[in-house]
């Protein structure tokens, strides 16, 4: 029972337990005006697009061109909120990725929940990587399909689970039951990537639907790893815009039929107010910025992407020079995680780095499994090599006397 804003005892107990485990989450305040900000090794703004002036101005121009002088969407996309700018943005995104259709959701969280709660049906099977993002897990929980995890990035484990499911499908019924295989192209907590090519072939062989979350790959690896590796359209993709794209929202990329299905059945699209027009204009402007500078995924990288790439290579080199490899998970992406087990220990090192002017977030259990707590370094185009050197020096000093677990 709630009395005068007091939480029920059982809820207070849950908070107390979090506190005792050194895992209590809280919202931190931004630094006061005039106080210098810590150097950013924590945001998802990998290319600095959130502050990119060209994108900002282009978004305003798009709104002017469309004569959209409006602050809010005014309703669900299915009612009054589907402004014409949605069509422009979705067509542009679909064309850029070479797919039939893109459907914009309010966030990556909404897109994953919408897809997984509505597409897999009772009798279907979902095989997902054990480290898959919380938004996919939540969607799966809302689905009536059976779900099984496979070991992280472990092709062998996936092969055995997929073969087993495909076999029982062929024994039990005709082709009534679908199998979905789900992974991320860059894992949000580890920064590593699965063997997407092998997984695509495997899914083709067993007629499974392959779903890839590209949240941390879009913009870091050109238009994402599915495009980079030319994996083609049997893959359903999620792209999000709150990370390298520097704005907000997400899209599911697939067929026209899939789009129509989601418009009819994805509750996180239907029962919520749409994004305001200026958010959609910013998505379009960010995409144009990325697409214009990414004629081919490998060559023609933008200055921002080149800089980010150089910083990733430099960071990896410095890890070796400073003999920190044992702590770091191997990753070619903008996410570089040093596993330092124990909430208190990892928090203490993050605090120390903060005191020295560096913002590196401690990722605690239960967000990651106990014993796998970590410092997650997010690299950006705007980090300098001297910042990277200094922050890793500080890390090495903080770790003196500890051994990698
Ligand atoms: C892999 C992955 N998928 C989906 C999401 C959700 O995206 P959004 O922040 O747009 O809700 C995130 C964000 O943390 C993520 O890391």
TrEMBL record:
Cofactor(s) this protein cannot do without: pyridoxal 5'-phosphate
Coiled-coil boundaries: 298-325
GO molecular function, one term: pyridoxal phosphate binding
Residues covered by the Aminotransferase class I/classII large domain: 37-393
Pfam entry (one): Aminotran_1_2
Swiss-Prot/TrEMBL keywords: Coiled coil, Pyridoxal phosphate, Transferase
Superkingdom of this protein's organism: Bacteria
InterPro entries per UniProt: Aminotransferase_I/II_large, AON_synthase_class-II, PyrdxlP-dep_Trfase, PyrdxlP-dep_Trfase_major, PyrdxlP-dep_Trfase_small
Protein family (similarity comment): Belongs to the class-II pyridoxal-phosphate-dependent aminotransferase family. BioF subfamily.
Protein name per Swiss-Prot or TrEMBL: 8-amino-7-oxononanoate synthase
């Amino acid at each position: 029972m709630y009395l005068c804003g007091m939480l029920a005892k059982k809820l207070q107990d849950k908070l107390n337990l979090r506190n005792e485990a050194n895992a209590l989450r809280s919202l931190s305040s931004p630094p006061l005006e005039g106080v210098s900000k810590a150097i950013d090794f924590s945001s998802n703004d990998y290319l600095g697009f959130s502050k990119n002036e060209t994108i900002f101005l282009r978004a305003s121009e798009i709104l002017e061109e469309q004569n959209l002088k409006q602050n809010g969407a005014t309703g669900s996309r299915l009612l009054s909120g589907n402004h014409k700018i949605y069509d422009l943005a979705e067509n542009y995104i679909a064309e850029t990725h070479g797919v039939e259709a893109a459907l914009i959701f309010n966030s990556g969280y909404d897109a994953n929940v919408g897809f997984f709660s509505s597409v897999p049906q009772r009798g279907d099977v979902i095989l997902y990587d054990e480290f898959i993002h919380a938004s996919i897990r939540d969607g799966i929980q809302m689905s009536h399909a059976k779900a099984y995890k496979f070991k992280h990035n472990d092709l062998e484990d996936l092969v055995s689970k997929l073969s087993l499911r495909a076999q029982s499908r062929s024994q039990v019924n005709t082709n009534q039951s679908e199998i979905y295989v789900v992974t991320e192209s860059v894992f949000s907590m580890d920064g590593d990537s699965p063997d997407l090519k092998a997984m695509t072939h495997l899914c083709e062989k067993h007629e499974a639907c392959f779903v890839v979350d590209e949240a941390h790959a879009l913009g870091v690896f050109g238009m994402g790893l599915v495009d980079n590796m030319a994996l083609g359209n049997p893959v359903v993709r999620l792209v999000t815009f709150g990370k390298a794209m520097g704005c907000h929202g997400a899209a599911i990329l697939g067929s026209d039929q899939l789009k129509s299905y989601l418009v009819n059945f994805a509750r996180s699209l239907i029962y919520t107010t749409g994004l305001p027009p200026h958010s959609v204009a910013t998505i379009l402007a960010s995409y144009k910025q990325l697409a214009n500078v990414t004629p081919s995924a490998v060559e023609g990288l933008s200055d921002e992407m080149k800089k980010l790439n150089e910083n990733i290579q430099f960071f990896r080199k410095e890890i070796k020079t400073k003999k920190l490899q044992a702590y770091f998970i191997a990753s070619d992406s903008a996410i570089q995680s040093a596993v330092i087990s124990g909430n208190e220990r990892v928090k203490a090192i993050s605090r120390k780095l903060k005191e020295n002017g560096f913002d590196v977030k401690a990722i605690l259990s239960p967000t990651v499994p106990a014993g796998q707590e970590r410092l997650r370094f997010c690299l950006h185009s705007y980090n300098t090599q001297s910042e990277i050197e200094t922050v890793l020096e500080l890390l090495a000093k903080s770790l003196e006397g500890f051994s990698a677990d």
